[in-house]
Amino acid sequence: MHFVLVHGWGFHAGIWADFVAHLDGAEVTLIDLGFVAGGPKGTSDWPEDAIAVGHSLGLLWLLERGGGRFKALVSIQGFDCFCCHIAPSRVKALQRGLEREPAGTLQAFWRSCGASGFALPEALNVERLADGLDWLMQWDAQAARARLACPMRALASRDDPIVPVSTTEAIWQETGIDWSRDGGHVLPLRHPRWCAHHVLDFAASL
After folding, report:
1. How many whole angstroms from its chain centre is CA 105?
2. The domain containing residue 98 runs over which residues?
3. Residue 101 sits in a domain of what CATH number?
4. Neighbours of 96 (CB within 10 A)
5. Dihedral in degrees, nearest 10, Cα atoms 46, 174, 187, 49
6. Comparing C-alpha atoms, which of 126, 93, 96, 99 is closest to residue 10?
7. C-alpha torsion 73→75→78→84, nearest 10
8. At what angle do helices 126-138 and 57-65 cross, to 10 degrees?
9. What is the pLDDT of residues 124-180, one digit of tens each?
10. Count of structural domains within the chain
11. What percent of the chain has pLDDT over 70?
């Protein structure tokens, strides 16, 4: 069993550390999108029979850039188009903040997600973070998701301040959603064992 894991905006691949520890020794490929330094080294390739797991923007990245190179897909607080469901003003505010005060903007973002102090200011790659915000504004992978023939599953938190319940239900209701009562927008950090349990159960059903 092999998993490819992609983190969300404002984080690095270290967000998966405790989650991986609960995967019962499964093989793992980490993709690091370059937003924040200090995490484990990522790679750019993975076996086509892997189960892809994307957190937040990481799920959108898999749909846009993954080329369908996975046998199943798990969304953890993810989406197939951000600004189709969430007001673009949310992203524009982050863009303005990133230009004016990157460190303060990321600290406020991490705090809102439930991951205060995730990294030091010098770890930020501001240019790459700006790229990620552009992806949130521009990418629409709804058609790409509709074309996928592979099994899919979604994990979500009922207190997620970034991807609310209504958005998750609009995107993933027909796929099937496993709900956590809490966890903010960082389920892999706050409830890694719970996430791993549901991902392994899904994998075993394939």
Report:
1. 19
2. 2-204
3. 3.40.50.1820
4. 11
5. -10
6. 126
7. 50
8. 70
9. 999 999 999 999 999 999 999 999 999 999 999 999 999 999 999 999 998 999 999
10. 1
11. 100
* Structure token digits, residue 190: 């706050």
Q: How many angstroms separate the CA atoms of 205 and 20, rounded?
A: 19
- If residue 155 lies in a helix (H) or strand (E), which one and from where to where? strand 152-157
The 10 Å Cβ neighbour count of residue 175 is: 14
CB 42 within 8 A of CB 59: no
Locate tokens 């790409």: which residue?
A: 144
What stretch of H or E contains 48?
A: none
Q: What would the DSSP string read from start to end of 64-90? A: HHSTT-SSEEEEES--S-STTTS-HHH
